[in-house]
Amino acid sequence: MPVLDSFSLTGKVTVVTGAARGIGAALAVAVAEAGSDVALLVRDAAAAEPVREQVAALGVRAGVYTADVTDRAGLEDVRDAITAELGVPDVLVNNAGTCIHRAAFEVSDEEWDTVVDTNLTGLWRTSQVFGRAMADRTDGRRGGSIVNIGSISSIIVNRPQWQPGYNASKAAVHQLTKSLAVEWAPLGIRVNALAPGYVRTAMAPVDDPAFKPRWIDDAPMQRAAEPEELGPTVVWMASDASSFMTGSVVVVDGGYTAV
Ligand code: NDP
C-alpha cells in the first residue's frame, strides 16, 4: 500500500469520547478529514451539535451519542446504537477526562473518586464495552485500534497547580494501555496511548500568569499546543500506518519532558 494511503480511515467508523469540545472535538474533525465516519460520544448532545456539523460538512457520516463514561449500561446502549447505525467501530479514541486541582491534603475522597472513575475506570469501561464489539465483529474485518489519551502528567508532576489524582490516573492509563495491548493483540486489536504536553483547552489555563512561567516559559518550544496539532498523530495511531505498533505511549509535548 502506498505510504500515504495507509493513513486513510475511509470506510472506517471512529468513536471519540468527550468530543463536544477541546482535544476531543479536534480529534473528531481530524479522523473525519482522514475519511472516517464519526460517532461523537458526549454527555450533552446539544453542546456537540457544532462539532457534528463540522464533521458532517467533510462528507462523512456523523452521529451524536449521549453517554457518560462512568455509566456502563449507557455505554453499552450507545455501542449497540452506533453498531446498528454506523457499523462496528474500527477505532476508539478514549479522550474523555477530567481534572480537579487541589493540594494533596485537601483532596476529598469524592474528588479522588471522580477523577479516577472518569480518567482510569471510565477509559477501562469504555475499552471493555467497545473492545467486545471489535473482538466479536462478523463483518469481515478484524479487530480495531484503540487510542487512549494519556498525559505527560504520568511522567512529570504538574506544578504549581496540584492534581495528584489526575497524575496517578494518567500513569495508570499508560500501564492499562500496555496490558490491553498484550492481551488483545491476538484479537487484532491494537491499543496505544498518546501523552500530550500542555494543550490550550478549558482544562489547561496555559496563559494564566500563575502557571505560564513553568508551563510555557520553561518549555523548549516556549508555547502550548493547539488541540488541532494532535490530530495527525492520532490519525497515524488509529490507521494502518501504525499497523505494527501496539502497547506504545507516544509523547507529543514540544520537548517538555526532554529537559
Ligand atoms: P476539556 O476539559 O476541554 O474536555 C474534557 C472532555 O471530557 C469534555 O468533552 C467532557 O465532557 C469530557 N468528559 C469529562 N468527564 C466525562 C464523563 N464522565 N463522561 C463523558 N465525557 C466526559 O479538556 P481537554 O480537551 O484538554 O482534555 C481532553 C483529554 O486530553 C483529557 O483526557 C485530558 O486529560 C487530556 N489531556 C489534556 C491536556 C491539556 O493540556 N489540555 C494535556 C494532556 C492530556 P463535557 O463537555 O460534557 O464536560
UniProtKB/TrEMBL annotation:
| Keyword match tRNA-binding | no
Which species expresses this protein natively?
A: Desertihabitans brevis
Cross-referenced InterPro entries, in alphabetical order? NAD(P)-bd_dom_sf (IPR036291), Sc_DH/Rdtase_CS (IPR020904), SDR_fam (IPR002347)
UniProt superkingdom: Bacteria
- GO molecular function, one example? oxidoreductase activity, acting on the CH-OH group of donors, NAD or NADP as acceptor
GO BP annotation list? carbohydrate metabolic process
Family per similarity comment: Belongs to the short-chain dehydrogenases/reductases (SDR) family.
Q: What is this protein called?
A: SDR family NAD(P)-dependent oxidoreductase
The answer to keyword Methyltransferase applying to this record is: no
Sorted UniProt keywords: Oxidoreductase
